[in-house]
Amino acid sequence: MKNFRFDIDKMIRWLLPYFLVKPIQLAWLQALFTPLKTLYVSFMGFRTLQLKNATINSEKERLQTALRDQFADDTIYIFHPDDYLDQAFIYLEREGATPEFDYLAIENHVPVDYDFTEAEYNSQFDFIVRIPASLAGSTQAIYAYVKKYIFSSITFTIETF
Q1: Minimal CA–CA distance to 154: which of 124, 134, 121, 109?
Q2: What stretches of 16-149 show up as alpha helix (H) in DSSP?
Q3: Lowest-confidence region among 26-30, 84-88, 146-150
Q4: CA–CA separation, 80 vs 126, rounded Å?
Q5: Treating both helix axes as pointing N-terminal to C-terminal, what angle do 139-149 and 60-71 enclose, rounded to 10 degrees?
Q6: Distance between CA 21 and CA 54 in Å, rounded?
Q7: Residue pair 72/65 in contact by the 8 Å Cβ criterion
Q8: Any transmembrane segments, and where (predicted)?
Q9: Going along the chain, which residue ranges are E strands?
């Protein structure tokens, strides 16, 4: 970051011969370099933004934090369907019947029938982005933002709650 910092006013004083350093001459040269100062400030803002964007990747936690920062909402949540299955109670009978619950999959139980419903097993998406209803109008912007940072083969969906 040090390489990109310089003071234009100081450079004017250094490059101007000592016998020409007068208040009117300095003011005139500083007025001439005002567009350069404006471009420098714009460049530094752009550089900061690009350095921030360079840290975003397709990892769940980093992408979730970036989404929360970009859209100013701390209730945005990304989860994988597999995470949900590991934490959910397990159905031991078929769908439509009165479900009997077993304990969590983490507790090394022996399944009687199967561990999940058919809809949970056939996940069509690699992850799901849950957004609040207040951001429902920004769904396309959120989709484009997430698509920018993930691999092309990964599929996802956006759900509102």
Answers
A1: 124
A2: 23-32, 34-54, 60-71, 81-87, 118-121, 139-149
A3: 84-88
A4: 6
A5: 140
A6: 43
A7: no
A8: 12-33
A9: 77-79, 90-91, 101-102, 127-131, 156-160
For residues 71-83, average pLDDT: 82
Q: What is the token pair recorded at 80?
A: 């994988």
Three-state DSSP state, 97: coil
Are 76 and 130 in contact by the 8 Å Cβ rule? The answer is: yes
pLDDT for 88 equals: 47
* 111 three-class SS: coil
126 CA to centre of own chain? 17
Rounded to two decimals, the pTM is 0.59
List the one residue out of 152, 139, 154, 151 whose CA is nearest residue 67.
139
Q: Is the dihedral of CA 80, 81, 82, 83 positive or negative?
A: positive
**Token duo for residue 33:** 């370099």
Tell me which residue has tokens 């479900």: 99
